[in-house]
Amino acid sequence: MFDQLKQLGQLGPMMAKAREMQEKMAQVQARLPSLRATGTAGGGLVTATASGTMEIVALQIAPGALADPELLADLTRAAVNQALRNIQELIQSEMASATGGMDMGALKGLLGS
What we know:
Strand order of the largest sheet: 1-2-3
CATH class: Alpha Beta
Shape: rod-shaped
CATH architecture: 2-Layer Sandwich
CATH superfamily: Nucleoid-associated protein YbaB-like domain
Oligomer: single chain
Number of helices: 2
Number of domains: 1
Structural class: alpha+beta
């Protein structure tokens, strides 16, 4: 019985920590539109830039890539996919930093989210 009371005593600080992490996550989510990651292909012939909202915000194509439409399509696809992978990794890193690596999914119901 006393062990259960000890566990209840730890609930308050744990919930406060969870709220703090939720606030940090909200700050990261607010910064997502300004996060940027790039992907390149063909030795820099095509460069794509993705935002934290998973949108391609810039696409740069070197003149040398224009000569072969099929190659251009392949390079563009590769650069865009790399940019999206890079931004996903950046977002995961930002979220892990905000939560200290803790999975907030299990706490969302407790916090009213």
